[in-house]
Amino acid sequence: MYSGVALGFWLLSTALGCIAVFYIFLSIDHREDIEQLFSKRETVLALADEIRQSSDDLTRFARSYAATSDPRFLNRFRTVLAIRDGESPRPLDYQYVYWDLEIVGELDGTDTGDYKSLEQRLIDAGIGSEPLYLLNRAKRSSDRLVKIEDQAFQLIEAGQTAEGLQLLFGESYHRAKAGILSPVRTLQQMVDRQMAEALEVASDKQRLLDTVS
């Protein structure tokens, strides 16, 4: 009788131990999922901010070229476009302060990465169809802005500097600029909200697993 009770107790203890170990491993896996959510959120927000930054860089170089006719600014303008569209390799530390240092020669020999466009990198980060729709809206507005900038460059090269500057500071330019940044702002807010909601659900599940284990 005693041996039977002991055996039953041993089996029960073993089963409970196995269950405890299972929940411990499940809890560890879930913590890794939460870390991945944090990483994904930071990646997507950083890429969305890069869209904003590239637009600001294009505006700055276009206006600098219009004001000075210095071909360095036009070359940088074209390079920013090419990097954004995946036609030129992206510098490895492009997310940090870059063009303000590069233009004065402090970043000579910067290593470069791949030829992926911003849109492709956002897709690779795993965003959904609605954020991509906002990105396409921003891209279309950016294309319209580039047309205005190209018109300004033609005026400048024809010696009509005042008219070129007017285009780059006029109402249509500001509206096109807002057309880029408005959906980018919405994209940032959307991704931040979606990630926050996902993290809250994941955190609730993690607390439950911690309690059980």
What does the secondary structure layout of this molecule look like, with pairings?
Elements: H1 2-68, H2 71-84, H3 99-102, H4 118-124, H5 129-157, H6 161-169, H7 171-212
Helix pairs in contact: 1-2, 1-5, 1-6, 1-7, 5-6, 5-7
Report on this structure:
This protein has 213 residues and is mainly α. It is built from seven helices and no strands. α1 packs parallel to α5, α1 runs antiparallel to α7 and α5 packs antiparallel against α7. The longest helix has 67 residues. It is elongated. The mean pLDDT is 79.
What structural category characterises the helix and strand content? mainly alpha
Give me the Rg, rounded: 27 Å
- Biggest sheet, in brief? none
Q: What distance separates the N and C termini?
A: 33 Å
* Share of β-strand residues: under 5%
Low-pLDDT runs of 5+ residues are none
Helix content range = over 70%
Compressed to H and E, one letter per element, the order equals HHHHHHH
Please state the average pLDDT score: 79
Number of strands: 0
Q: Helix count?
A: 7
Shape: elongated
